[in-house]
Amino acid sequence: MLTALAPGERRTSEIKGLVSGSVSDKVLAETLAKGVEYGLLERRVVQGRPGEPGTGVWYQLTAMGRSLLAALRPVAEWAQQWEQKLPHVPD
């Protein structure tokens, strides 16, 4: 999920569409809330009429979240490099 927010602020629905695999709304909401609680994400609510551009709940990485993402990138690159040799973990 951190990588989904790397380019910048996104709405919840955008994040859901970018997360690999299927994730329920409940699990996504819980994960985002924990990210806010841990200081990795900032949450912003924009009030307005439903469907109006820009309204809704927006998330973005904090400085701590960006630094964690930078620290995890080498691990992700390693996993991609060795993906074929790693054991399959069922969903």
In words, what does this structure look like?
It is a single chain. Strands 1-3-2 form a three-stranded antiparallel β-sheet. The protein has four helices and three strands. The two termini are 17 Å apart. The chain has helices at 2-5, 12-18, 25-37, 63-81, and strands at residues 10-11, 41-46, 56-61. With 91 residues, it is α+β, with helices and mostly antiparallel strands. The radius of gyration is 15 Å and the shape is globular. The longest helix has 19 residues, at 63-81.
Low-confidence stretches: none
What structural category arises from helix and sheet content? alpha+beta
Strand content: 15-25%
Mean pLDDT: 90
Continuous helix count: 4
Q: Strand count, sense and closure of the main sheet?
A: 3 strands, antiparallel
Shape: globular
List the strand order in the largest sheet: 1-3-2
State the main characteristics.
single chain, alpha+beta
Short description:
Helix content is 47%, strand content 15%. The chain has 91 residues and is an alpha+beta fold.
